[in-house]
Design goal:
Structural class: alpha+beta
Number of helices: 5
Radius of gyration: 18 Å
Helix content: 25-40%
CATH superfamily of the largest domain: Winged helix-like DNA-binding domain superfamily/Winged helix DNA-binding domain
CATH class of the largest domain: Mainly Alpha
Strand order of the largest sheet: 6-5-7
Shape: globular
CATH architecture of the largest domain: Orthogonal Bundle
Number of domains: 2
Order of helices and strands: EEHHHHEEEEHE
Strand content: 15-25%
Number of strands: 7
Length: 176
């Protein structure tokens, strides 16, 4: 099933053409639902699309807004019940920055460990490749006879005077 999604937000119009029936991620999600005796519903499909194809970090309330643009019948309760399912399936991950709510991010195309730089002024979260941390975490755990279950590196920072937090960080700024 191919559909064009026009996700309108306050600051931009995001258009995406998504063929979820042929995607490995959609198959993974459907299999995960089936293995846990959960039904594939239109609401869960809308939540999956809004979450997995999101380009930025989002809260549950952000996800509710985006999912309702796809299917108006999506309820807040369904979003909150579906988020743990998406995280357990490995398709999105939780990002806890010490607030009274969590952020989430799509776990697609994750080939290296990501560190998170959190702007203390705006709560913006910038993901930065940090492959050395993956190696270091595995090396330390192996030395102790253990296996890594999860790791996270969060850096809290404020912009230098006169510098704005970048919308999309340039990779060259973080290399050597």
């Amino acid at each position: 099933m191919r559909s064009n999604l026009n996700l309108m937000t306050e600051d931009k119009n995001v258009e995406a053409s998504i063929d979820i029936e042929g995607s490995d991620s959609w198959s993974t999600f459907k299999s995960f639902l089936g293995a846990n005796n959960l039904r594939v519903t239109n609401q869960r499909q809308a939540i999956f699309r809004a979450a997995y194809y999101s380009d930025d970090h989002f809260t549950a309330e952000d996800l509710l807004t985006k999912a309702r643009l796809i299917d108006r019948s999506v309820s807040r309760a369904t979003v909150y019940r579906t988020l743990p399912i998406l995280t357990e399936s490995g398709l999105i991950k939780e990002v806890d920055i010490g607030k009274d709510y969590l952020f989430y991010v799509s776990h697609r195309n994750a080939t290296t460990f990501k560190a998170q730089v959190i702007c203390k002024d705006t709560d913006r979260i910038i993901e930065v490749d940090a492959p050395f941390m993956e190696w270091y975490g595995k090396a330390v755990a192996a030395r102790l006879g253990m296996k890594v279950v999860s790791m996270r590196l969060q850096i809290e920072a404020r912009p230098s005077e006169g510098v704005e937090v970048p919308e999309v960080p340039s990779a060259s700024k973080f290399v050597g």
